[in-house]
From TrEMBL:
Keywords, comma-separated and alphabetical: Coiled coil
GO cellular component, one term: cytoplasm
Gene Ontology molecular function: actin filament binding
Annotated transmembrane regions: none
Gene3D superfamilies: Arfaptin homology (AH) domain/BAR domain
Protein name: F-BAR domain-containing protein
Chain positions covered by the region annotation Disordered: 198-227
Domain F-BAR stretches: 1-166
Highest taxon above the source species: Eukaryota
One of the GO BP terms on file: actin filament polymerization
Amino acid sequence: HKNRNLQYKKTLEVSGSSFLFINIRGHRLSCSAFSVSAISQAKRLYEQRCRDKDEAEQAVHRSSNLVTPKQQEKLFVKLAQAKSALEDSDRMYQNNVNALEKIREEWQNEHVKACEFFESQECERINYFRSAMWLHVNQLSEGCVKNDDNYEEIRKALEQCSIGNDIECFVHIRKTGNLPPVPVVYENYYNTQKNTVPRRSQVPVPGTRPQMPIPSSEPGDANYASVDGYSLIHPH
């Protein structure tokens, strides 16, 4: 799992970095080819040409009956030049606006693509790790179930354990006889009367030991198996 995680992380970093680099590079190229300052400059020139044209029209109307035909002709020429300059500045201003708007739309489309790409990568990452964790937890849960089954078999075997029977079995297998050894007697060599060897002490054969209590295993008992109140699990 560790190797797969590292490989998946490396793939995300490479693809994400390359896509981000392309997006930033395209945005920088667009901005370098056309800046916002060009729009402001074209707008100021357009507004100035509008004012020049308005002033030329007002001059023609004011001096229609006050100037000579030659002077009036000059005013009309000036008005025509103002209109021509206005048309040129208007065209340039519109072209700049359209060019910048096109760049804005392209950048916005690229930005949307970048967001969608990163979103898909994040969804894939979350789905991958969720599936991996789900599988791992299922494996752990399955192991716990198997362990609990094994523990239950052990508890069932312990319920059949009888301490008294085990002790009796050990004594029966390992015993060396039913009577203890005879006492060791001192015999005096010079004593005319031989010491009477005492008879073997009749030691009663050990009787059967009392039956030990059987471990209880009641449903819901936290100790699972206890012997008359004794338990290895101490309540808190």
